[in-house]
Amino acid sequence: MDNIVDSLNSAYQEFVAAAASVLEAKESSGGQKTAATDAALENFKQRWELFRVACDQAEEFVESVKQRIGSECLVDEATGSVAGKPGQNVTTGLPPISAVRLEQMSKAVRWLVIELQQGSGTAGAPSHSHVSPPFDARFSEDAAQ
Fold this sequence. Notes:
The protein has 145 residues and is mostly helical. Helices cover 66% and strands 0% of the residues.
């Protein structure tokens, strides 16, 4: 994470320096277009692109961390291993399930989402015979459904 922050900071500093160079070149040329102003503008454009890339990389990192934290919280919640503050009782209202069971249900949901996105979920008719049912009768909580 430190590398991403350092990279973003460096790209920002170079971008700001390039912007200052454009202003200085324009001022020294009296507002006229010269080779120096063109070079400063080209450098500014390159630094802008590098800054955008650094921002995109930082954003991707933040999104991946958000997803990882969300997944960890989901697994903790589902398996009942939520840690509370000392002296605090933590109750989720849901009986804990195994991580394996959680993964099975997650895969079933993903298959359903894929089917819906592909438009193959026709009303009343099974869309694919090879798709396993989303619930497994071996588990007591599914057998009741």
